[in-house]
Amino acid sequence: MYPYNHYKYIKRDQCYFPPITTSHVSIKYMKTFYIRLQILLIIILVFSPLLYLGYKKLSPQLDLYLYDLSAQQTIYPISTLHTQDTKILNDKNEPIRLRGVNLISTNWGDKYNDWNPKAIEHAAKNWHINVIRTRIYEHEYVENPAKFFLNLETQILDPARKNGLYVIIHPWFGENDSLPDNEGIKMWLSIANRYKNDPHIIYDLLAEPRDTTFDTVFNTYTSLIPKIRSISPNSLIMVTGLDWGRDINAYLDSPLPYTNLVYRVNPYNKTAEFPGLFGKIAEKYPVFFGEFGTEDKLSMTIQDVQNVMAYADKLSIGWTAWHFTSSGCPCLLSNELDFTPTPYGDLVKANLAGTTWPFTLPTFDTDPTKLYVYSDFLESGFSDYSWGISNQLGTTISTNFHNGAGIYFSTPRRIDPKTFKSFVLTIDSKEAGKFSLRFKSWDNKLSNSYLLKNGPNAIGISDIQLDSISGILIESNETIPDPTILKIDHIYFRK
């Protein structure tokens, strides 16, 4: 007889085991299941950050792939552009004038995901634009190229294509650096590869060069443009100059050796500064105004905005005004929700609708022995950065000079004083003998002071002891009656 109830236990090789029942199997497997579940949850918790980052990285790639898959079935025909003389032409060799607005970028907050396409459609239908200019950020490309292209496509390019618009792309390198680093070049080449067969896209390769030299900018273009051309040989390319993209007349002496090239300028300036920044080159090569606008802190007034558009009308120059929203001004809109224009926006909209204003184009002195700073307008890239006073820049510079004020004309160029024998200007003031002049070099060194007299002044500069001249300062060297009328004219370097 078994030592235990044989109904409960069965002898197996001298050992006693309980009989296997359904309830025992369930408990055993439930315990195993819960252990495995706990292990799985621990693994998920440990690796969830990596899984999330992987999802964030791969999701845009999948979304872009699906977008491209559907977009391949839709073609929005538009003319391929090229240049000839001073004109931009379509594929029928007819002149086309690009005029439109800037949309700053795809990264101004989530609401712009939906707002940018609506803005493009509204500007196309109600403002009658044919081009959009938008900014791309290098860091967004570096962080996630797929997301970068998906945002650009869905917010800007696809809405622009649907509305028959061209798109000018301009960059933001690093912390708004003047020139691209290796990642910036890589970004441009990636864009060229993606859009090499898309005639909607226009390349504006550098945004606002400054604090560098013309030769450096020139060499950057001669390095980058052939790389773009090898991928996209027929693309329209825009190039700009120094002083935050304002001085493009400098290319007259050294034009870039490429076709289908447009010289782009951002003329946030007074009317008297326009000819010296872009007026001369606009008579020989295609020119485009990338940005302009007015607000309280800018020297460009509402009248200057009207004049720059009138100047453009005279020479059939294209432009994109800054910019089509109500923040990050100058702003074309005062209310984004219903697209209400600002007074500045009303002026731009009126010009797009056909309103024009009278404007007299300047006549340039072509005397090869003179480099003008001021004739009837500022030349040679010079701009007015005077302090404490407001100069009237007409046929003569006229001002009410105050003690503590100063007249300062500055250019991003480096004028070689050894090239010239003298500096000439004419002074008209009862207190002329109380004013003096100094030159400022590109690296901010100052020359000795030269006392001025009433009437013509000719200052010898062969021994000026500066490597370059990029600024001219006129100040009072003793107390003057406050204010004092001062007029200056015929300012130039003479060989």
Describe the protein.
By secondary structure, the chain is α/β, with parallel strands linked by helices. The chain folds into 3 domains: 1-40; 62-352, TIM Barrel (Alpha-Beta Barrel), CATH 3.20.20.80; 370-494, Jelly Rolls (Sandwich). Helix content is 31%, strand content 24%. It has helices at residues 22-71, 112-126, 138-143, 145-162, 182-195, 214-231, 242-245, 274-279, 302-315, 343-352, and strands spanning 10-12, 15-17, 82-84, 87-89, 99-103, 131-137, 166-172, 201-204, 236-239, 261-265, 287-289, 318-321, 333-335, 340-341, 370-374, 383-384, 392-393, 397-401, 407-415, 422-428, 435-440, 450-451, 455-460, 469-476, 484-494. The strands form 6 sheets. It has an 8-stranded parallel beta barrel with strand order 5-6-7-8-9-10-11-12. Strands 15, 17, 18, 20, 23 and 25 form a 6-stranded antiparallel β-sheet that branches. A hairpin with a 2-residue loop joins β3 (82-84) and β4 (87-89). It is elongated. The chain starts with 9 loop residues before the first strand and ends with a strand. The relative contact order is 0.08.
CATH architecture of the largest domain: Alpha-Beta Barrel
Average of pLDDT: 90
Distance between the termini: 133 Å
Number of structural units classed as domains: 3
Structural class: alpha/beta
Q: So, the CATH homologous superfamily of the largest domain?
A: Glycosidases
Strand % is: 15-25%
Radius of gyration: 33 Å
Question: In percent, how helical is the residue content?
Answer: 25-40%
Provide the CATH topology of the largest domain: TIM Barrel
Largest sheet: 8 strands, parallel, barrel
Task: Give me the number of helical elements.
Answer: 10
Spatial strand arrangement across the major sheet: 5-6-7-8-9-10-11-12
**What's the CATH first level of the largest domain?**
Alpha Beta
**Outline type:** elongated
* Count of strand segments: 25
The parts where pLDDT drops under 50 for at least 5 residues are 1-13
